[in-house]
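fyi for ur records
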Amino acid sequence: MSTAEGMPVSVSGYSDASRSVLGTETYSSAEKSRQGRSSRQSLARSLKRLQDRLVAYGLLFPTISVFVIFFYIPAGYLLYISFFHWSVLSSSTNYVGLENFRRLFAQPLFFHSLLTTGYYTLVMIPATVLLSLGVALVLREAVTARRGGIWRAAVFLPHVTPVVATSIIWVWIFNPQFGLANFVLTSLHLPALGWLSTTQWALPAVMIDTLWHSLGLYVIIFLAGLANVPRDLIEVAQLDGAKRKRIFRRIIWPLLSPTTFFVLILSTVNSWQAFSQIYTMTGGPHGGGGGPAFSTTTDALLVYTTAFTYDHFSLAAAMAAILFVIILVLTLIQKWISNRVVFYR
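which gave:
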């Protein structure tokens, strides 16, 4: 069928060219509709992500503001005044550059405090890890599930008691004349010790107090790590005839490596920042903190004494900056080691 001009006409009355044009326009309209829906869905997803982020930042804002106000700003200001001659009792400040650090490294007592803190840390870290892990294993294996909560609470209770109050009690325990520690030693026919009155035993006495006070926290952390050790692996090893030592060495200890690493970091930081128990037990309230003969003077205690006893705040700020660098370096070293020995399953 054809028109007068000779153009072919379809049965429906439209030419092939017209039908082609209409089909293209229909496809283009459907494609635009799909693109519009896709863009609206993408915009909705973006708005949902933005809303989730705003909610998350809103929930984090109180915590972040506390850190910024009470940690980051004071830390930045502490680093700032370490380059000045600054006093809280005077409004004048003089820029001295690295003079405070030069004076600091010329003081033998500063190096003595670093050595004391290092010795304190080297003793406390393995003692804390081994003792807390041992107590956690005992509580896990020997305590029944019905009474486990009571024993865990009893172990954790010293950690929630005030440090100053318990340190005063330990001062009475270590009293050389009527203290409980010497009473136990003499009952076992052992010689009585001077404890806090001698340079040899003053720091070990502080370590005993610190272990007693902080042990509960690390025990609870290790108990949480032990709870994540699959019982199936232990039962299979027992069926294969493995002894307890082999099970601990091959199964429990590798799976506890992340928990152990966390305890190492925590105990390292707490040991280098030890202050309250040392200040209280060594006569701090009476003006003799760090004695006898500076045998218990750690770096944190020297920072406090320099700032609030001798009013050298800028020098104390330089000490605190060096203490921060030491703790940061130790943490990075432990992190580097953990990447090679810590097993994350």
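The longest strand covers residues 84-85. thats all i got for now
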